[in-house]
Design brief:
heterodimer, A: alpha+beta, 3-stranded antiparallel beta sheet, globular, B: alpha/beta, Rossmann fold, 5-stranded parallel beta sheet, two-stranded antiparallel ribbon, 9 strands, Ni-dep_hyd_lsu_Ni_BS (chain A)
């Protein structure tokens, strides 16, 4: 038996280590370790309610708009504030520009170097694995698209900035309103950005993922999870939707029920003291700052593959390559939805009045990496308690009775070359880990 | 300062592009060497790396090809595991510039932020920053967390986070901002590479980028001078009464703007929240007074 620790897993957001045990070329044990603690829920307590929007954005540099939106939804829920359709469309558009930025960057900057060897001069691109199978000519094509992708991911952030001032950490989304002044020129500007990015995704990104999947067909067999999938819903409007709040457990689809969400900390560096969850780095048996959220006691997979399956756009299966393909296909699908939404937005006058009281609110939205939940307890205009369950917590949780989702994906994987274990990084990255997000502490439930 | 003022006023928008081109020319003609850079992400959100990816002129690829040898970056480097950390260790034996984003978590000797596991030993960001900080030719703290502690150090500071300067007790160039603007980062690197001194204020911030308050150059200043104030989010007037921190925040955002210069927070009808301030966020709240 060989024990192997791969830490850092680079080309992700945040800090993640993976420990695997390999027997006869097969992974028999896997531990996924979240290596960062920030304690946002503690920081938020006692602060002004509205500040939750801009502060929780700072949880994550790559998916900040998602937190702005989830915090806004939680506050609207607490304040009984119902935004107009126009406001919903505009902020969904802003959020989707950030999802597109994420998907393009995750595919080209983080995923592609696992499969394609570049010939850039920067030492950043030195490789430490040998398994590169794509012929030179196609590798150069993908390398050219890699360079183009930098422009298009930036352009997606220009979309965020047009609607929200700047990116990352935009200012545009607030409870009940969006701050942007729209005019007809700005709307056309946004449309042209959507068209440009869609052209790149449809003509380059989808082709590149197709090439990669042809040369790495064995990755349709590596990195399988439980076939449990969850989504809080995304672009769920009256007359059309992408994905409804829904779950698949053991292959069976049903409606989503928020009461079935639980969190445990059995193997996380936390303990309960006087009803409060506190950090304890010395806790025996624990190995991660990520907690273990469960749906109906089961670990689930969240993210683009989960959404594509739940929306009926992808067959019910899970693997490293399916995950990567689903992300690219979803990017194209979201851009299509964005061009529908952008036709519906219009300039408007902003008016909002906040009526603060003692209340609580839940904000749930699917975002780049999957299902994101914010829960706020208000004492008038101050925050009395805040809980966050991030997408990466669902995927990267440690075990309880079941292995965490990514641990499950690793275990039973066949390792081609025991002296060059390239599979672990590829499997883990296919989930698009964001460990800056995943590491939190809950104050109360 | 006088020279700096001239540059800010006359050459602001194209400055970091001009600086970067100068560096590339010097490197090509052998006047300077492409320096090694170690970029450590510590307790933060990695948003400064994302901001760097948003750089336009020069962009990320130009920076990597023509200006620096980036030897270690958790977000970007192709290698992983021990080989990745070995690249960090090898670079320590050569000349290099240290860039840190994120605050330094010191609780439990730094174990709240582990950046590598090397031959069975957990390497904390705290360790790595001390190791690299002792040998670095220059040290740049990128973003408000690295510069002053920022959101990571916000009360009650759950991870006992400190700024890079607090930990290293050495000269550090601070490039605060949440995130830092890509041109502030690349522009500062350009000075260091050409061995030209970049003037800094008493908080270690380059005067070139942080010499004036946002209020000094705000496009809505005329409304302030005429006492025309916005009372709600979305109004096109001066947002002083909504809690705008422009008067106490030193950055060149009004002129430099963000994301291909298309916008900035005040252009989006929201007040400046003072994200580049030493007292952000605790001293800047509430962000919006409504």
């Amino acid at each position: 038996m060989v024990k192997l620790i791969i830490d850092p897993i680079t080309r992700i957001s945040g800090f993640l280590g993976v420990e695997v045990e390999i027997e006869k070329n097969k992974i028999v044990e896997a531990k996924v370790e979240g290596n960062l603690f920030r304690g946002f829920e503690k920081i938020l307590k006692g602060r002004y309610a509205l500040d939750a929007v801009y502060l929780t954005e700072r949880i994550c540099g790559i998916c900040s708009s998602a937190h702005a939106l989830a915090a806004t939804l939680a506050l609207e829920n607490a304040l009984n504030l119902v935004p107009t359709e126009n406001v919903i469309y505009i902020r969904d558009l802003l959020h989707s520009f950030d999802i597109i930025q994420n998907h393009i960057r995750h595919f080209y900057l983080f995923t592609v170097p696992d499969y394609v060897e570049f010939d850039f001069s920067s030492p950043l691109y030195e490789t430490c694995h040998k398994d590169y199978r794509i012929p030179d000519k196609l590798s150069r094509k993908i390398q050219e698209d890699y360079l183009k992708s930098i422009e298009f991911s930036k352009l997606a952030h220009v979309g965020v900035a047009l609607l929200g001032g700047k990116a990352p950490h935009n200012h545009g989304i607030l409870p009940g309103i969006v701050s942007v002044s729209l005019d007809r020129l700005k709307i056309e500007e946004i449309k042209s950005i959507i068209n440009k990015i869609k052209d790149f995704v449809d003509n380059c990104m989808l082709e590149d993922v197709n090439i990669i999947s042809m040369y790495y067909g064995d990755y349709f067999e590596k990195g399988k999870t439980y076939n449990n999938f969850l989504s809080f819903g995304l672009f769920d409007y009256e007359d059309f939707y992408y994905v409804k709040p829904s779950v698949i457990i053991n292959g069976v689809k049903s409606d989503f029920d928020v009461n079935k969400i639980h969190e445990n900390i059995n193997y996380s560096w936390y303990e309960v003291h006087d009803g409060q969850v506190v950090e304890n780095i010395k806790k025996k048996g624990a190995y991660s700052f990520v907690k273990s959220p469960r749906y109906d006691k089961m670990p689930v997979e969240v993210g683009p593959l989960a959404r594509m399956i739940l929306s009926g756009k992808y067959n019910l299966k899970s693997s490293t390559m399916d995950r990567i393909i689903a992300r690219c296909q979803e990017a194209s699908n979201i851009l299509r939805i964005m061009s529908i939404i952008v036709e519906r937005i219009e300039p408007f006058k902003k008016e909002v009045k906040y009526d603060f009281k003692v209340s609580s609110g839940l904000g749930m939205v699917d975002t780049t990496r999957g299902a994101l939940l914010h829960y706020v307890k208000l004492d008038y205009d101050k925050i009395d308690g805040y809980d966050i369950i991030t997408p990466s917590a669902w995927n990267f949780s440690p075990r309880d009775d079941f292995l965490g989702t990514v641990e499950k994906a690793l275990v039973d994987t066949f390792i081609d070359d025991i002296n060059d274990v390239v599979e672990v990084g590829r499997i883990v990255r296919s989930f698009d880990p964001c460990i800056s997000c995943a590491t939190h502490v809950t104050l109360r439930r | 300062m006088k020279n700096c003022l001239w540059e800010v006023i006359n050459n602001k928008n194209s400055l970091s592009k001009a600086l970067a081109e100068e560096v590339a020319v010097q490197i090509r003609f052998g006047k300077t060497k492409k320096p090694n850079v170690i970029w450590i992400e510590a307790t933060g959100c990695s948003g400064n790396t994302i901001s760097l990816m948003n750089a336009d002129y020069p962009d990320l690829i130009y920076l990597l090809d023509n200006m620096i040898n980036l030897k270690f970056s958790n977000s970007l480097m192709v290698c992983d595991g021990e080989r990745a950390f070995e690249s960090f260790l090898k670079t320590l034996k050569e000349d290099f510039i240290l860039v840190v984003e994120g605050a330094v978590s010191t609780k439990e000797d730094g174990l709240f932020n582990i950046i590598a596991n090397y031959k069975g030993n957990k390497i904390t960001a705290y360790d790595a920053i001390k190791m690299a900080g002792a040998k670095a030719k220059s040290i740049i703290a990128v973003g408000t967390c690295a510069s002053f502690g920022g959101v990571s150090k916000a009360y009650p500071n759950p991870s006992e986070a400190k700024s890079v300067k607090e930990v290293l007790q050495k000269d550090v160039i601070n490039l605060p901002g949440c995130p830092s603007h890509p041109e502030w980062i690349i522009g500062t690197l350009a000075y260091i590479i050409t061995n030209e001194k970049i003037e800094v204020d008493d908080l270690g911030r380059p005067l070139l980028f942080y010499g004036f308050t946002i209020h000094d150059f705000c496009e809505r200043r005329v409304y302030f001078n005429n006492r025309i104030f916005a009372k709600n989010i979305g109004e096109p007037w001066c947002m002083f009464k909504l809690g705008c921190r422009g008067p106490v925040t030193k950055t060149d955002c009004p002129k430099r703007r963000w994301n291909n210069k298309v916008n900035w927070p005040i252009g989006d009808n929201t007040p400046c929240i003072g994200c580049a301030n030493a007292y952000f966020p605790d001293g800047m709240e509430p962000f919006i007074r409504l």
